[in-house]
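Researcher: I'm comparing several assemblies side by side, and this is the next one on my list. It has 569 residues spread over two chains. Same procedure as the others: predict the full complex and return the structure.
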Amino acid sequence: MIQVRELSKFYGKKAVVEKVNVNIHRGKITSFIGPNGAGKSTLLSMVSRLLDADTGEVLVDNDHVHKMKSNEFSKRVSILKQSNFMNVRLTIRELVSFGRFPYSRGKLNAEDIRIVEQAMDYMGLMDMQYEYMDELSGGQRQRAFIAMVIAQDTDYILLDEPLNNLDMKHSVQIMKILRRLVDDLGKTVVIVLHDINFASVYSDRIVALKNGRVVKDGQTEEIINSDALKQIYDMDIPIKRMNNCNICVYFNS
Amino acid sequence: MRNSTKMIILTVFAVIFCALYLFYGLNGSFDYALPRRGIKVIAMVLTGVAIAYSTVVFQTITHNRILTPSIMGLDSLYLLLQTVLIFFLGSSHITIVNRHVNFILSVSAMILFALILYRFLFKRGGQPIYFLLLVGIIVGTFFGSISTFLQVLIDPNEFLRVQDKMFASFNNVSGELVWWALGIVVLTFIVGWKSFNDLDVLSLGRDTAINLGVSYDRVVKTMLVISAVLISVSTALVGPITFFGLIVANLSYQFFKTYKHKVLIAGASVMSVIALVGGQWIVERVFTFSTTLSVIINFVGGVYFIYLLLKESRSS
């Protein structure tokens, strides 16, 4: 379990995240939702130690994030941010191999190579593994990065808006893969999402943020109802039940 | 062609040029000319390696392939120091005449300046790299302006001594200093060696590097200090020549097409040696000293820089 305790981040005097307390349960998909500027990405960055918190602490299975060695932490928690700038030209295989860096420090052994190939296979990248990253489409790039994170083989996988700029087909594909990671491999996935319908259909738990604070935290069914959504988004959002899923019809509300 | 083959070919070229420089037209003068040429070759190899190493590392931590470490303002500080010494103490003062004193003074001034700059910037937290570059540019321009101001006022004869220092030259390198410089460069390799793999990850960006367990701040600080030390040593040894690093670093990226810093740094170093030793040989034997190597380097480097700018703007 990842425990977030009284976590705050200030830019100047403005609190972007303020005294947030959240528990992230093992073996579940937890979605962070909320309006723009609610502090979702900032919270995720602090949990994954990309950003230093001003107050509060984060515990991963009862160990303090800041007391852990960076290398040890990277074997337990991985993070994928929304924009991934690269200064070098890499093939998919080279990028995915970087996922083994916490274990191999750059020298891959047979076991590492097996895991890298498994990760690429899992993401359906085997037949294009020698293609260069800068020649791929957005969906393929995103899959390559997720393959890297899978090769990193951590219990916890944090993703910051992985569906950004992806079309419906690729979004669904990625969400299904994440679901499989949780159901088949027992991983814990935390994901920042903008589309609440993806959160509704695929996640086990939802944490809703607004103005840097947690306004709702619970099972998906508890959050996806018109009352709770009104509190989060200040919108009247009717919910329709289709194919056993709750769908929020927010387009003309 | 495999990268190891490329490296062997480059190394063979480097050795050929060194041999050519050492033995061409020696006319049996083994006692007089050979040791002098030997010192010059070692100085060129050292400078080449120092500049290649520091530029590749600096470009990786700043995520920018058209920067050189000179942007930190170290060579401007060197010129300012030389100008101030000549202006106030005169060109016959011990700090100018005695090369050892001058070397130690220059190296310690530059390293001290870099450390103060880093200390001041890293205390603020956050992501100081771009702020560091900005401060470097401003401070560098400031140093440059003061130097120019003093050079305008200075006695014309003394100005010739200043002008001497403004361009890199391998013609008056002191034998003893070369060994000092060699020691320092070897030391930077020992310190940097185990971080070379971390640098590979750093080229994926800060967030990915931290995600993969690289102690980002520690690696960046170590590498900034290493590149400041290397620049200081090479500048104090032969004069400001950092622009040269831009050429060899980018040629190395283009030629080796890899992300592995061990290969990139080694490749850029060997290319520097070829360019410096080969270039100096041509200057001495073909142009018979009618021009200097740094003029040629700045000319070729300038053309290549414009090519890089055009290429980068096309690709984005």
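Model: For your comparison table: The mean pLDDT of chain A is 85.
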